[in-house]
Specification:
Layout lengths: L7 E5 L12 E5 L2 E6 L6 H11 L3 E7 L5 H4 L2 H8 L3 E4 L8 E4 L4 E4 L2 E7 L8 E5 L4 E5 L17 H14 L3 E4 L8 H23 L6 H8 L8 H17 L3 E3 L10 E3 L14
Helix pairs in contact: 4-5, 6-7
Length: 282
Amino acid sequence: MSAAPLPVTLVRAPNPGPLTGPGTNTWIVGHEELVVVDPGPLDPAHLDAVMAAAAPLGRVSRIVCTHHHPDHREGALALAARTETLVGVFHTTAQAPAELPLRDGDRLEAGAHRLRCVHTPGHAADHLCLLAEDDGACFFGDHLLGGMTTVIDPPDGNLGAYLRSLDRLQALRPRIGYPGHGPVLADPVAEIATVRAHRLEREAQIVSALTRGPATAADLVPGIYRAYPQSLWPAATRTVVAHLDKLVEEGRVDLDPGTAGDAPLFRLSPTAAPGGGPGSRS
């Protein structure tokens, strides 16, 4: 264990919204040799703020993007040019010369601390979390958020993979969590359990709704998300699709023979055991 705790500084991007909360969290990690996690959007004022916050702490020696979504990665190459360093991204999406391919288990130095890459597909197929091995801090990107729910948007998003990644992260027993949006997670192990239970609760609601007959994903949203603003229903529909995809993979739900066009009908599988399958916020 390092004698000193992991130094972490937050610079929040000015991109608040329904899906980004107060804005994207850019984390500056370490001392003297710094890692910047999720540079955020291509916003010169935000990149200026990151550079200003990093200057008294040390030199930016690496930039890491937890995944490819623009609110996390768009400003990465511009920041790399300013700091004359490379951008670590999951190897399947590394394209630019300044992008360093990262794989599960790779390690990065952040001053006296070491960050381990943990591949956590689910929100995005290329999603990485970063675990400080000597400190227990975890940078969750969009896999686990502060006060918000992660959207799972197929086909890049996959709910089965998301739940398996949650289980993997819980087994690592992170001490504290630094999410891509929202406040710091003081007890990430408990939050992981809460999120997993919430997902399985949503799944049970979908199965219950399908007992009333075949439905499209959009048909299911008003009943399940009635307490949410309708502006969020399109994103909620994508999450319902992710749940339905998982249920189809498990043989618990089928595509209805009457399906046509771009809005498939789903029905409970006649071979699925009542209440069967694994139990599981959006």
